[in-house]
Amino acid sequence: MESSSQTTVSSSLANRTLVIMAKAPKAGRVKTRLSQSLPSLAVTALYRCLLGDTVELAKSLRSVKVAVMCPQSDRGELADLLGNTVPIVAQNGEGLAAGLTSVFGQFTAAGRQHVIAFNSDSPHLAPSVLERAFEILATHDVVVGPTHDGGYYLVGAKAAYPSLFEGDGMGTGNALDRLLTRLKVLELTTGCTEPVLRHRRRRRFDSVGSGTAARSRQGTANRDVVP
Questions:
Q1: Spatial CA neighbour of 163 closest among 94, 92, 97
Q2: CB 3.0-4.6 Å disulfide test: which of 102, 122, 128, 199 passes with 91?
Q3: What are 114's strand-pairing partners?
Q4: Are strands 114-119 and 142-146 parallel, antiparallel or unpaired?
């Protein structure tokens, strides 16, 4: 018979959701920085691999529900690409800010949900990074995974905060600062995972095939940092 503490832990694990922010792999819409130096077909093929491996990473965690959030116009193509491996949910509105607002509006609506949204090109993360993010979220209102270029690769919350992602600038070098400023204004307790590099090295793309995008898992240890 389970103790009350074991029941609480099991309930908490059952309410964990990872949501992958994705787009359909169309030329000019994904990995646009790479398109300046690589053929569009190579870029879209790479993105397909990154997305597929990111889904596998998310599914490797135990007691976690996984879903994909995408623009309404991309839902059909992503459904064809991913099949029935994960639910694919259309966001309300356009752009990343609208997508993140949709994530927490939809997935925390039932209450008692610990929801983390993260990038679709993140298969290099170790599962422990995502586990650590859930641990931090258990004791904070919001968890953020910063990148060294001024952005962030994940954000998690237990409730929806409609004004949190207001405005533009999601892809700029001060996106993290803008988010942390809003969190302070809303008086939300915030924990951060250890910052990571968005791109650690230039990879070879001359033979991009299924599963070749990024199989290495970074064993970067995370720590709780409260701004």
A1: 97
A2: 102
A3: 16
A4: unpaired
